[in-house]
Amino acid sequence: MSILLLTAVLVSSCVSKKKFVELETKHDLSKTELVDLKANLQKCLIDNERESTKVFTLLEQIKYLQEDKKTALKQVENLTVLTQSSSDNIKTVISQLSEKDKYINGIREAMTQKDSLNLAIKFHLTKNLTDGIRDEDIEVNVEKTVVFISISDKLLFKSGSYNVTDKAYTVLEKIAKVINDQPTMEVMIEGHTDTTPIKRDIIQDNWDLSALRATSITRILQYKYGVQPERLIAAGRSQYIPLAPNDTAANKSINRRTKIIIMPKLNQFFELLEQDATK
């Protein structure tokens, strides 16, 4: 009886241990499957987030392209209007250029006439002024629409003085005749000195000397030879516009000069512009 009981216990014990091993194996397998499932779930979540980001980016691009399309269509509409406007503007500009060409040609014709007049003045001055006067003492030039007469001061003044010499009247009389023959021209008288300092009586420096010399010539042209005073301009330029370096006595003599400039009146020039602009 005891032997039978012992055998039954041993058999029962073997069966329970076998089931335990089987259950333990299944448990381990379940744990592994669970870990794999969690890993797969995590991967799916990451993939889902990545795809969601892509979808969002694509939606934004679609939105941008739609807005860009609207803008492009609006620009095309504006361009159509602008093209028509530009065409009208081009026609207007061409018309204005045509008018300006007429205006410029009118100015050129007027300048040509003025140049011809000044060349005639130069010829007349050169012919009359150099009669009995050494060529190097007086020079007549034409630049654009202006006649320049440069007279050496030894023909007009004594050294350091602004009183006109007797022989100067012969030159000034001839110049005055030419000036009076051209009543539409203005006349500027410029005094120029060398760099030698001067200070005497009412003369403080070369500014004073050049201005006083210019004024002396201006008064003679007005009071003795009848040039209208509103046409005359007196200017002192001192020593600051030399023709040669002030390093020798000969060069200083060149720089001591009086320049008489015959030129068109500015108001007449502007009137000419206005007349051509209205044609």
Task: Describe the model.
The chain is an alpha+beta fold. It folds into 2 domains: 22-89; 110-275, 60s Ribosomal Protein L30, Chain: A (2-Layer Sandwich), CATH 3.30.1330. The protein is built from 5 helices and 5 strands; from the N terminus they run H-E-E-H-E-H-E-H-E-H. The chain has helices at residues 2-129, 168-180, 206-224, 249-255, 266-277; strands at residues 138-143, 146-152, 185-192, 232-236, 257-264. A 5-stranded mixed β-sheet has the order 1-2-5-3-4. Helix 1 (2-129) crosses helix 5 (266-277). It is elongated. 17% of the residues are buried. One of its GO terms (cellular component) is membrane. Residues 144-266 form the OmpA-like domain.
Summarize this entry quickly:
By secondary structure, the chain is of the alpha+beta class. The chain has helices at about 1-130, 170-180, 205-225, 250-255, 265-275; strands spanning about 140-145, 145-150, 185-190, 230-235, 255-265.
Topology, element by element:
Blueprint: H1 2-129, E1 138-143, E2 146-152, H2 168-180, E3 185-192, H3 206-224, E4 232-236, H4 249-255, E5 257-264, H5 266-277
Parallel strand pairs: 3-4
Antiparallel strand pairs: 1-2, 2-5, 3-5
Helix pairs in contact: 1-2, 1-5
SSE pattern, N- to C-terminal: HEEHEHEHEH
How many strands appear in the DSSP assignment? 5
Could you describe the largest sheet, including whether it forms a barrel? 5 strands, mixed
Instruction: Using the 3D structure, state the CATH architecture of the largest domain.
Output: 2-Layer Sandwich
**Average pLDDT figure:** 77
Number of helices: 5
Radius of gyration: 54 Å
- CATH homologous superfamily caption of the largest domain: OmpA-like domain
Spatial shape:
elongated
**CA distance, first residue to last residue:** 151 Å
Spans of at least 5 consecutive residues with low confidence: none
CATH topology of the largest domain: 60s Ribosomal Protein L30, Chain: A
Q: How is the largest sheet built, in terms of strand order?
A: 1-2-5-3-4
- Give the helix level as a range of percent: 55-70%
For the record, the CATH class of the largest domain is: Alpha Beta
What number of domains? 2
| Overall SS class | alpha+beta
Q: What fraction strand? A: 5-15%
